[in-house]
Amino acid sequence: MIATPLTVCLLLLGAWCVIGIAGLLRPMSIGFVGRTLFPLGALCGTALAAVAVAGLDLPAEQLTLPVGLPDLPVHLRLDALSRVFLLLLGAASTGISIFAAGYFRKGEGTAPGLMCVQYHLFLASMGCVLIADDAYAFMLAWETMALSSYFLVTTQHRIAEIRRAGFLYLLIAHLGAIAILLCFGVLQGGSWHFTFDAMRAARLDPLWAMIAFCLALLGFGAKAGLVPLHVWLPEAHPAAPSPVSALMSGVMLKTALYGMIRVSFDLLGQPIWWWGLLPLALGLLSALYGVVFAAAQTDMKRLLAYSSIENLGIIFTGLGLAIVFAGVDMRAAAALTLIAVMYHAMNHSFMKSLLFLGTGAVLHSTGERNLGHLGGLIHRMPWVAWLTLIGALAIAGLPPLNGFVSEWLLLQSFLFAPKVPHAFVNMLLPLGAALIALAAALAGYVMVKFFGVIFLGQPREPSLRKAHDAGIAERIGLAWLALGCVLLGLLPTHFIALFGVVTRQLGVGGLPPSDAPWWLLLPIPERQSSYAPLVFFAVIAIVVVLSIYGVRLFYHQRVRRGAAWDCGFGRLNSRMQDTAEGFGQPIRHLFQPFFAIVRELPSPFDSAPKYRLEIGDRIWAGLYLPLGVLVRFAADRVAWLQQGRISTYLLYSFVTLVVLLALAL
Amino acid sequence: MSELDWLVQLTGIAIALAAAPMFLGWVNQCRAWLQNKSAPHILQPYRGIRKLFHKDALIAENASRLFRLAPYIVFGAMVTAAAIIPSIATRLPFTQAADAIALVGLLATARVFVSLAAMDVGTAFGTLGARREMMIGFLAEPALLVVIFVASLTFTTTALPLIAERLSAQSFSLNPSLAFTAVAFTMVLLAENARIPVDNPATHLELTMIHEALLLEYSARHLALMEWAAALKLFNYACIGFAVFLPWGIATSHAPLNLALAVLLLSVKLLLAGAGLALIETLSAKLRVFRAPEFLATAFLFAVLGLLVRLLLGA
C-alpha cells in the first residue's frame, strides 16, 4: 500500500487498536498499561494530528477497502473537514492520554488492561467516524464509539447510579443512532447505494431533504446533548473516570458536530435557509439551559457536564446561523460563521478536557466530587490549580484566551444577520446574539464558582490539608491542554486559515481576501472590526510588569501576614465561607422557572436541624417520565401476545406465513 | 503609524491615569454639594491612594499568590481598556488591536479576577461579595454588549473609534434606538461602578455592600491599585459612553488644535457627566440586593428594545 495521508491515518487508528489490545497482555499491571501503553497512545494522537494538518489543502482522498461483508467494501475519505476534526481528536487526545498514563490506579473498578482496550477502541472508532465514506462504515464506527464509551462510563459498575447513568446513555445513544440510520436511508434517494458519493449525487425533493435534515438533527443532537435530548449527558459524563469524561465531553460530542456539518453542507448539497432556524433555536435553548443548570450544581463534574451542554448549544446556534447564511447565499457570512463554529469546537475540546482532567486530579487527591467538601486547594495543588485556572478563564470567554476568539467570531457573524432578506427573521436573529452574550456572561459566573469554591478560600474539610499535587504525567497532560488554550487564543489567524480551507472545500466559500498581517484578526476587511490578541496580551502584560516594578521602585515592599478580618467576633472558620449552593442561589432565584426545586427547611424547634435542597430538571419530569409510562403501557399491551405456550407461537408463525403468501400472490 | 500617533496614544493613557481619580473626586464633591454636606477636596482620592501606597501591606495568612497578583492584573486590564477607548482621538495605533467586544471581554476579565481574589481568603464577606459582583456582572455584561451591538449595526463595525468617528460626522439628532440604549448604558454604568442604586460607594455596612466587600481583605499598595483601578473603570465607562453616544469634538486627526479642543471638550463632558452621576445618586435610593437583578434586567431589556427599534425603523 502506498503511504498516502489516508493510509497513514488508517495505520495510526490501527495502532490505537493494537495498543488497546496489548493492554490485555498484562491486564492488571498499572506499570505496563499506564506508563507504556498510554504514552504510546498519546504519541499516536500527536502523529494523527500532525498528519491531519500537514496536507490540509490537498484535495480529498478516497480509499476502498475490501473488508466486511461481501460486495460491501468499506469506503474511506479524507477531506479538509475530516482532517480538521482528526486534528481535534489527535491533539486533544494526546493531552488526555498523557494524563491518563498517570491517572489510573489500582483497585478502581475495571482492570486497567480492559480499560486500555476500551479507551483506545473508543479513540480509534472516533477516528473512523471521521474518515468513513459510506453509511455502513459510519454506522459501524458510530456504534463502536457508543458501545466502547458505554463500557468506559460503567467502569465502576458496582454502583447502581452509574449503571443507571450508563443505561440512560446507551438508550439515548441508540435512539440517536436509529435517527441517523433513517437519515442515511432517506439520503440515498432511491439509488440504494449507501456510499456518501451516491448521497452527494442523489437529488432529493425538498420535503425529503427536510426530513433527512431533521433526522440528522435528532440523531446528532442526541449525541451532542441538545435540549431536550440532554438528560444523559449530566449523568454519564460525571460517572466516567475523568480522562474518559474529558474524552467524551471534549472530543466525542464534536463528532456530532462533524456529522451535522457533513450531512447539511456536504451530503445534502445546498441547504435551505430556514432549516437553520431549528438548530439555531435548539442551540440557544441548550446554551441558556445548560449554563443556568451548571450554575446550580454542587458536583464539580456535573457542573462541567452542564457547561458542555451550554457550549454545544453555542456551537449548534452557530451552525444554524451558518445554514441560514448559506441558504440565502451570503457566502462570506456563512464562511465566517462556520469558521466560528469549528473554532469553538476546537476550543471546547481543549478547555473542557483541561477542566475535566483538573477535576480528576482533585478527585484523586481528595476523594471528593462535591464542591461543598472542597476548597483552598491552590495551596496544596498549585500546578493543577493554575493550569485549571487557564481552562476556567478560557471557557468563561475571557480575552486573550481561546474561548473569547470563537465567541468574538460568532458575535461578528451575528452582525450580518440584519442583511438576511427575510422579514422578521432578520430582526429576530440579532436577539440570538443577545442570548449568546447572556450565556457567555453566565459562563463567567459558573467558572468563578467552579474555580473559587474548589481551589480558593479555606479547606472545607480537615482531610484536604493532606491533599497532594498531581504527578508528573498528569501535569504534562494538563499543561499540553493549557498550552493549546493559550495558542488557540493568541494565534487565531493561523487556525482560521485552516478552517477556511474547510469552508472552501465544502463549497460554502471562504473569507474575503485580506492583507492584514498575521497577528491581526480581521475577518471581514470592509467592516474593520479587528482583534490582535498578541498585542492585546502584550499590552496587559507590559502594564502589569510595569506596575509591579513601578510600585517596587517608588515604595517599599513590606508585607505582613495577619489573620483575616473577622469583625471582632473571634476566629473565622471554613464553614463560614459561601458554599456552592450559596453561590448558585442568585441564579436559582432568578431562573426559578427553569428548575424543579424541592426544598425542606428545618423548623426552629428541631434539635437536629436538617436542610435539604434538590434541584431537578423539569424536562425529566415533564417529558421523559410520561414517555416512560407510555412505553411501559404499550409494552404491557404488547405483552399480551406472549402467552408462553408453544402452540400459540406456532399459530403466530402460521398466520404470518399465510398473510405473506397472500400478499405475494 | 508615526511617532505622533504613539505620542497621542500614550497621552491618552496618561490622561486617563491622571484624571480618573480626579473624576471620582469631582463626583464625590458634586454629591456632597447636592446633599448639603461640606465637600471633600477634589484631590482627596489622590491623597487616599498616596497614603495607601506608603502603608505596610497586611495580607491574610491564607492568601495565595493569586490574591497578590490580582490587583496588578485588574489595574493592567483597566489601563489597557483606557488605551482601547477613544477618549481624545480616534486614530490611535492600539485601537486596532481590540474592538468593542474585546473591550467588554477585558472588563469581564478584570471582574473575574476581582471576584476570584475576594474568594481567595475564604471569609464570608469575600465570597458574598464575589457572588454579588458576578451576579451584577452577568446581567450587566450582556446589556453592555447589546448596547455596543446596536451601535455596531448602525455603523457596520465593532471598532469603537470608527463608531465614534462615524457618529461625530453626523449632525446631532435624537436617534430613537440610541436613546433606548443610552438609558440602558447609564444603568449598566451605575451597576458596574458600584454606584447607587445598586451599591453605595460611601457605605461600609457589610451586608449591603458589594464593591467594598470584595476589597475587604486588601490593604496598602494592593488596595491603592484596586481603588485606582476602580476610578479608572468609572472613567473608562464614561469615555465609552462619550464614544458611543456623544463623540462630537473628538479629534479625528492629530492636528494640535483638534487635540487641544478634544481635551477641552472631554473635560467639559466629564464635568457634566460627573454632575449628572451625582444627581442620579442623590435622587435615588439604594435597592435591596435582590432588586438589583431587576434593575439590570430592565437595562438589558432597554438595550434589546433599542436593538429592535434599530432593526424595525432602521434608525
Per-chain topology:
The complex is a heterodimer of chains A (665) and B (315).
Chain A lengths: L4 H18 L7 H25 L6 E5 L8 E5 L1 H24 L8 H20 L3 H19 L6 H28 L8 H6 L4 H19 L8 H7 L2 H26 L9 H20 L3 H28 L3 H36 L10 H4 L1 H14 L6 H13 L10 H31 L16 H19 L1 H14 L27 H22 L4 E4 L17 H11 L4 E6 L11 E6 H21 L7 H19 L1
Antiparallel strand pairs in A: 1-2, 4-5
Helix pairs in contact in A: 1-2, 1-4, 2-3, 2-4, 3-4, 3-10, 3-13, 3-18, 4-5, 4-10, 5-6, 5-10, 6-8, 6-9, 8-10, 9-10, 9-12, 10-12, 10-13, 11-12, 11-17, 12-13, 12-17, 13-15, 13-16, 13-18, 13-19, 15-17, 15-18, 16-17, 16-18
Chain B lengths: L2 H32 L9 H11 L2 E4 L4 H20 L15 H21 L3 H32 L4 H10 L6 H17 L18 H4 L5 H26 L10 H28 L8 H22 L2
Helix pairs in contact in B: 1-3, 1-9, 1-10, 2-9, 3-4, 3-9, 4-5, 5-7, 5-11, 6-9, 7-9, 7-11
Outline the structure in words.
The complex is a heterodimer of chains A (665) and B (315). Among the domains of chain A are: 1-191, no CATH class; 603-665, no CATH class. Chain A is built from 23 helices and 5 strands. Chain A has helices spanning 5-22, 30-54, 80-103, 112-131, 135-153, 160-187, 196-201, 206-224, 233-239, 242-267, 277-296, 300-327, 331-366, 377-380, 382-395, 402-414, 425-455, 472-490, 492-505, 533-554, 580-590, 618-638, 646-664; strands at residues 61-65, 74-78, 559-562, 595-600, 612-617. Chain A has a two-stranded antiparallel sheet with strand order 1-2. Chain A is globular and about 100 Å long. Chain A starts with a helix and ends with a helix. The model of chain A has no long low-confidence stretch (mean pLDDT 88). Chain B has one domain. Chain B is 71% helix and 1% strand. Chain B has helices spanning 3-34, 44-54, 65-84, 100-120, 124-155, 160-169, 176-192, 211-214, 220-245, 256-283, 292-313, and one strand at residues 57-60. In chain B, helix 2 (44-54) runs antiparallel to helix 9 and helix 4 runs antiparallel to helix 5 (124-155). Chains A and B meet through helix 16, helix 17, helix 20, strand 3 and helix 21 of A and strand 1, helix 3, helix 4, helix 5 and helix 11 of B. Strand 3 of chain A pairs parallel with strand 1 of chain B, so a sheet runs across the interface.
